[in-house]
Amino acid sequence: MKNPVLQLDNVSKAFYPPLSFRDIISFNFKNKPPTQALDNVSFQLEEGKILGILGPNGAGKTTLLKIISTLILPDSGKVRVNSYEVNRDDDNIKRSLGLASSEERSFYWRLTGIQNLEFFAAMYGLNKNQARARIKELFETFHINYGRKRFDTYSAGMKRIFLIIRALLHNPRLLLLDEPSKSLDFENSQKIRDFIAQLSRQGKTILLATHNFTEATELSDSLLILYQGRNCAWGTMNELRHRFNRPQGSIADIYKDCTCNA
After folding, report:
1. Are the CB atoms for 68 and 6 separated by under 8 Å?
2. Cα separation, 130 vs 126, whole angstroms
3. Judging by beta carbons within 10 Å of its beta carbon (0-12, 13-18, 19+), is residue 156 exposed, middle or buried?
4. Which residues pair with 54 in a beta bridge?
5. In angstroms, how far is CA 127 from the centroid of its own chain?
6. Which residues pair with 43 in a beta bridge?
7. Which helix (H) or strand (E) holds 36?
């Protein structure tokens, strides 16, 4: 793979449990065993491709996205985004990627959708004219006609789309999506998938963390299965079928083989 947009080499991250009130008042400061969120995870992602990340709750998917987006630092290993390295070139990395989490709590619910986006665009360094032009472009591209309504009146699907639009305001090369169709009904889930597919056709490189096997296989060029913080499978569907000796196997079959034998 030549000049990958994203490259991880042996990335690990552990979290130590916080001290309880009882520990503090009894001066019990002994180290408690950490939770290993990621354990030597390595993979690469080529420009213009979608990588689907699957794994049970607690497998490390969200931790992985937070490390790539520089929200938290790895304990060991290297992360490169567009040849910039996490913990050395964080400002350049932040300009290179957009993160859409699975929650919309950071939006201001009394403001309209447009007002929210104008505020976040300013935080990305866009001036008023640039922000308005970019928002207009994104609304036209994705057929948004409800931007002047208050954010708290939006449906779950509308809010999820605005999360992705916010991540696209500064036109990043890499987009990180954390469970974009979480808790949505079939109609809104399909709208989100169509939205992501359109982004891919526009040349965006996308990291898609999801619990939805159908979503992952429909949208992704390659798949990564995380289990207990470890990379237990990575590759195209054909490569995974070959590795697990399942010529006609589904991703659900491979997921079971991978997680049961990990």
Report:
1. yes
2. 6
3. middle
4. 225
5. 27
6. 8
7. strand 35-45
| Maximal CA-CA distance, the chain | 61
CA–CA gap between residue 201 and residue 23 (Å, rounded): 54
Type of residue found at 35: T
Helix 186-201 and helix 156-168, axial crossing angle in degrees, nearest 10: 20
Burial of 69 (0-12, 13-18, 19+ CB in 10 A): buried
User: Does 3.40.50.300 match the CATH number of domain 6-261?
Assistant: yes
What is residue 87's three-state secondary structure?
Answer: coil
Beta carbons within 10 angstroms of residue 106's beta carbon: 10
pLDDT tens over the chain, length 262 residues:
567 899 999 999 999 877 676 777 776 656 677 889 999 999 999 999 999 999 998 899 999 999 999 999 999 999 999 989 998 999 999 999 999 987 667 899 999 999 999 999 999 999 999 999 999 999 988 889 999 999 999 988 889 889 999 999 999 999 999 998 887 788 878 888 888 998 888 889 999 999 999 999 999 999 999 999 999 999 999 999 999 999 999 999 999 988 876 5
Domain positions in the chain are: 6-261
Tokens linked to 231: 């990379």
Are 120 and 97 within 8 A, CB to CB?
no
Distance of CA 61 to the CA centre of its chain: 8
Structure tokens at 166: 């916010």
Q: Identify the residue whose tokens are 């109609």.
A: 187
**43: helix, coil or strand?**
strand
List, edge to edge, every strand of the sheet that includes 174-178. Answer: 97-100, 174-178, 205-209, 50-54, 222-227, 230-235
* Whole-number CA gyration radius for the chain: 20
- DSSP helix/strand/coil, 46: coil
